Amino acid sequence: MPRRSSTCKTFVRARERPPIVTVASRASLRARTIDPWLDLTDTADFTRVGSSPRYGRSKLMDIMFTQELGRRLQGTGVAVTCCCPGFNATGLGRELPLAGALERALTALGIGNPQHGADIIVKLATDPEFADSTGGYFAARTAKPLQCPEIGRGEAAQRALWEATAELVHDIRRPYNA
Predict the structure, then answer these.
(1) What is the percent of the chain where pLDDT is above 70?
(2) What is the rounded CA–CA span in Å between residue 156 and residue 60?
(3) Which end of the chain has the least Cβ crowding within 10 Å, N or C?
(4) Could you tell me the CA-to-CA distances from 11 to 22, 45, 66, 133, 172 in Å, in that order?
(5) Is 159 exposed, middle or buried (0-12, 13-18, 19+ CB in 10 A)?
(6) Are 86 and 140 within 8 A, CB to CB?
(7) For residue 26, is pLDDT > 90?
């Protein structure tokens, strides 16, 4: 991995406009609703029951944000893409019942290697085939284009997420004594 990492850094530094790659997930398909204000400010405790839908919404928002950023940077030469890294045994969900046993079994079978997820990220950042991509969402291994789930696919929904994010970031950056 160090060699690949070094190659990636060299390539990105050499580009006048380095690419932007966001990591999303097909878990976004689990999102049944999307409310940018509510979802961006939700501070409820992480629970076994609520973790999967919340994770799905966060990954949906990654795709939506990337596609809106792609539109905003169109024509600048900055490639903006996102990807689903596939299933990776990273410890996410470790609080779920049987998670430890499942991770050990998958690792023993060679399933869920995080390197596979890293490969698509490096490919999107370094492969000239994606240098002009903007707003694309791609699958691990095949780099096949994926669609944003329908609930977050529209430009108006993506713009609403962008605007809610911008306002929240502005509020955070605003001095407290202003």
Answers:
(1) 83
(2) 15
(3) C
(4) 18, 41, 22, 17, 34
(5) middle
(6) yes
(7) yes
Mean pLDDT of 62-66: 98
Q: pLDDT at position 72, please?
A: 94
CA triplet 98, 52, 147: central angle to 5 degrees? Answer: 125
Backbone angles phi, psi at 5, to 5 degrees: -60, -45
Q: Within 10 Å of residue 88's Cβ, how many Cβ atoms? A: 18
Asked about 137 being catalytic, the answer comes back as no
- Rounded distance between C-alpha atoms, residue 46 and residue 52, angstroms: 10
Please state the pTM of the whole predicted model: 0.82
Residue 12, pLDDT above cutoff 60: no
Give the three-state DSSP class for 104: helix
Rounded Cα distance between 110 and 114, Å, is: 10
Amino acid in position 133: S
Q: Which of 36, 55, 126, 140 is catalytic?
A: 55
State the Cα–Cα distance between residues 76 and 85, nearest whole angstrom: 26
